[in-house]
From TrEMBL:
GO MF: oxidoreductase activity
Keywords: Oxidoreductase
PANTHER family: MALATE DEHYDROGENASE, OXIDOREDUCTASE-RELATED
Family statement: Belongs to the LDH2/MDH2 oxidoreductase family.
Protein name listed in UniProt: Malate/L-sulfolactate dehydrogenase
SUPFAM superfamilies: L-sulfolactate dehydrogenase-like (SSF89733)
Underlying gene: sle_01170
UniProt organism field: Streptomyces leeuwenhoekii
Matches recorded under InterPro entries: Mal/L-sulf/L-lact_DH-like_ah, Mal/L-sulf/L-lact_DH-like_NADP, Mal/L-sulfo/L-lacto_DH-like_sf, Malate/L-lactate_DH-like
Amino acid sequence: MNVDIDHVRALMVEACRRSAVPAESVDLVVDHYLLGETQGKYSHGVAKFCFESQFFGERQGSPRTVRERGVLAIVDAQREIGPVSADHAVRIAADRARELGAGIVGMINTQRYGILSPWAEHLARAGFLGIVMNTSRADSTVEGARTPFLGVNPISYAVPTTGEPLVVDMSTTKSPMGVLWEARRGAAQLPAESFVDLDGDFTVDPHLAESAMVFGGHKGFAVSLLIQIMTGSLFGFPMGPGVESTWTTGYTFIAIDPSFGGELDDFPNNNARLVEVMEGVGTRDSQPFRIPGRRSRAHVRKVTALGKLDIPDSVYRRLRARAAGDFVSD
């Protein structure tokens, strides 16, 4: 159904009020999930807000740094709401990068957020190379295996250019787990060859699916494994089957200041020249070469101009329930 963006936002704000989100954090939380929706990342937009809002009241306090040495810092988020704790970690990473050339922040004991790209882009707009990643429970596996042993391990990175930052935001599974959750709620089929059952066979039945499939065969597995380590053992956080809950899930935020390596104005300029090269890449179908982040930005512009969101009836019902103070119905 088509719903005015302002109306959706008002319902989200009311849901935050009902769940005792601090007034100074409401806009940050609502805008984060609305951005995911307007980018077309529906599994990480309003539906994700409806799911995560049931935990907002579990926050215990503001994030605090519990250990730091050199470029590294570890943050105990104290079960803070995901977008709020991520904003905190990004700022710490940026501060350390300004002082030391790099900031590498590991965070644990936090609620989840939606898309990763806003945090990486925040760092890029400050002139840094920004990298953001997190793990999850062991919900993914590799082709040929039957046992899930990795988190879904998404990653986003961004660099400044002379225009908009160049931004990548991707899961290391073929489809995010949010797709599975929504398919179970709506009795929809899953994307082909994206999830496997208990025997390791591909399935499109959301009720038979047990694991998300890592992309790219053995090479994709290697990328996911690196993220697992960088969100886990690097900071002494649990990994794989050791991640037992939201509160033991690791998050990593990295800011790198190129000026410490001698690069000043040339960093965004060189990145912009690379983007120009990509813009000139020929394709077999004569369509423009797909540059990371541009499709999402175009979707935001289109939706914003229309002033409406196309939201499934079931998600809209859940959102209205949250705004009425019902954080249980699904």
